[in-house]
Design a protein that fits this description.
Chain lengths: ~200, ~190
């Protein structure tokens, strides 16, 4: 539910894949076809021999060129963009479910309130081992993600029905309906607890 | 209604991978490469010995690669690079569906782990046929649920009865799209249960 830019991830991964594929294909071709290898060597040597002239055309001082500085700047810019890409993963999680400002002051509803409310209404249910709630910003609304871990072998229908009943109680309590995702999952704890032979 | 729209968005985000792991690993590898290149460039500017190879020497090496490396080595390296590229393309273009099933509900978006469904179906089958936990196992795929039953030796089981029980159990779940059911009754029975 995090606000990771998924299209960005996939686009950049496609670009990276295409570049690697092209470089790999060229390298393999150079190994297989003598003409490609010859072109590679001649073009590469010409470029390397032309380089001192280009560097000398824009001198910064006697030893370094502006082109070297530009190359360094390019490396730094790419590194900054890559850091940005890493930083864009995840995010959007919030601890505040709702906030209301009135003349008398500000009222905030924290996610932990919802968690406590759902836990207390589901704790009597023998089929449910644990309940966890997180809240996330979803398109200018706050969405809730309720993770329910049932006892091993419990019917998902019963578990989901119980969760929905608790959530309708939550709607009444809050007075506002939030987008909610219920995730029924088997945790490590459900895998370890043995099924009761008589049930 | 805006609320249903957002619920659908929640479901899509929950059931599909964000490709964050692949993205972060790719970015980290690229960053390491860039950091090395930047360091070599700075070292070369201030006339210090390079860490591995100085930028001009690196360019020379790249230009002369086909004449210094054996052709088959070049081919192998190229194939390796292309393979890694293909892997990235696959990661980027496949849907990356998680092992979750969407349950049809009005108020909330609901997903259920395959393992939860498998455990519930196994439990129901066991109850219906009076079997031990070891005798029933269930596998839940995206479109099909396979129940594997090993009857107790000497007391044969009715497949239609088990199928009816499993289908009855599943009908309450409202999984979308509805998976097919396959009952796999083993011929050899279990002894000493």
């Amino acid at each position: 539910m995090s606000s990771t830019h998924r299209w960005l991830n996939r686009t950049l991964l496609v670009l990276l894949g295409l570049v690697l594929l092209a470089v790999g294909a060229l390298t393999a071709a150079a190994g297989l076809l003598p003409e490609v290898a010859g072109t590679w060597t001649s073009v590469g040597t010409a470029a390397v021999e032309g380089l001192p002239g280009i560097l000398a055309a824009a001198p910064l001082n006697t030893e370094t060129s502006w082109w070297t500085v530009a190359a360094l700047a390019l490396v730094l810019a790419c590194a900054a963009l890559l850091f940005g890409w890493i930083a864009s993963q995840g995010g959007g999680r919030t601890r505040t479910l709702a906030q209301q400002d009135t003349g008398a002051g500000t009222t905030t509803v924290e996610t932990s309130l919802v968690e406590d409310a759902l836990r207390s209404s589901l704790e009597g249910n023998g089929q449910i081992l644990s309940v966890g709630v997180t809240s996330w910003r979803v398109r200018r609304q706050t969405g809730l993600r309720v993770r329910v871990q049932p006892r091993r072998g419990a019917s998902p229908a019963a578990v989901v029905a119980a969760a929905e009943e608790a959530i309708s109680g939550l709607d009444t309590l809050l007075g506002v309906r939030h987008p909610i995702l219920v995730s029924v999952h088997a945790g490590a704890r459900a895998r370890l607890t043995r099924t009761r032979r008589v049930d | 209604m805006s609320e249903t729209l957002h619920t659908r968005r929640l479901l899509r985000r929950e059931t599909h991978s964000s490709r964050a792991v692949a993205s972060v690993s790719a970015a980290v590898v690229l960053l390491a490469g860039l950091a090395w290149l930047g360091t070599e460039a700075v070292l070369s500017v201030v006339n210090q010995p390079p860490l591995i190879i100085s930028p001009p020497a690196l360019l020379n090496w790249a230009a002369g690669l086909p004449s210094t490396v054996l052709p088959w080595g070049l081919t192998l390296a190229g194939l390796g690079l292309a393979l890694v590229g293909l892997m990235f393309l696959l990661v980027a273009l496949t849907p990356g569906t998680r092992d979750l099933h969407v349950v049809g509900r009005d108020r909330t978006a609901v997903v259920v782990d395959s393992e939860v469904i498998a455990a519930a179906v196994s439990r129901r089958t066991r109850q219906e046929a009076g079997l031990d936990p070891d005798q029933v196992s269930t596998r839940v795929d995206r479109r099909r649920i396979t129940v594997d039953v090993r009857p107790t030796s000497g007391s044969p089981l009715d497949e239609t009865l088990i199928r009816a029980a499993v289908e009855d159990e599943l009908s309450g779940y409202r999984i979308r799209p509805e998976p097919g059911v396959r009952i796999n009754l083993r011929h050899e029975g279990a002894l000493g249960i």
